[in-house]
Amino acid sequence: MLQPADLSPVPAAEAPRDCPLCPRLVDFREECRAEYPEWWNAPVPAFGDPNAWLAIVGLAPGKHGANRTGRPFTGDFAGELLYATLLKFGLAEGKYRADPADGLRLKGAVILNAVKCLPPANKPEPAEIATCRRYFEASLMALPKVRVLLALGQIAHVAAARAVGVKPSAVKFRHGAEAQAADGRILLSSYHCSRYNQNTNRLNAEMFERVFARALELQP
Ligand code: SF4
């Protein structure tokens, strides 16, 4: 059976398929495995370019997206806008078909989640975010060319700020927030491209693209 590391640009930093560290998420994983045995139902590995300069940081796998397919943002509503934007800005090549076998490749970009396992109701608990930090931060350390982190949503914003040594209280989350870490890495933040945010017009494609345009201005 495939392990998360088999699919990852940072294999040494990935959690094992049966990572036991978050009991609530392990229970939910087992429920999903029983109900949908053909799904991925495991920690979702990073996806993208091992030489990435841009790291896109999501919250956690979506049930019918990454938790089903095994690739971040693949197969759910949020992924449609994210991958369309990556393709539009030349950060991906190929065609996005909502399937990890679609051959899509990221160029200069990588996608990570702050929490690798599916949380019930899409809401990880603070202890789960803290526990999975070891994998999230190990992934970033294994991506030494990353200079810009683009966090999608508040939880990702806080996780990414901590990972680069910026106090979360020093940079308030908002769409387009920007902060510089002591080592020069830049944290950019965006509203999450979730179905809820798009349907309520909190985020539209133009707003999302503005943040990517800013990231490209910061490309080393
Ligand atoms: S969320 Fe992270 S730390 Fe928790 S069980 Fe999954 S892989 Fe392990």
Automatic annotation (TrEMBL):
The keyword Oxidoreductase is annotated on this UniProt entry: no
Keyword Iron-sulfur in record: yes
Domain Uracil-DNA glycosylase-like intervals: 45-212
Gene Ontology MF terms in the entry: 4 iron, 4 sulfur cluster binding; DNA-deoxyinosine glycosylase activity; metal ion binding; uracil DNA N-glycosylase activity
Keywords associated with the record: 4Fe-4S, DNA damage, DNA repair, Hydrolase, Iron, Iron-sulfur, Metal-binding
InterPro entries for this protein: UDG_Type-4/5, UdgB-like, Uracil-DNA_glycosylase-like, Uracil-DNA_glycosylase-like_sf
SMART domains recorded: UDG, UreE_C
Ranges in a coiled coil: none
Domain of life of the organism encoding this protein: Bacteria
GO BP, sorted A to Z: base-excision repair
Protein family according to the UniProt entry: Belongs to the uracil-DNA glycosylase (UDG) superfamily. Type 5 (UDGb) family.
Entry-linked PANTHER family: TYPE-5 URACIL-DNA GLYCOSYLASE (PTHR33693:SF3)
UniProt name for this protein: Type-5 uracil-DNA glycosylase
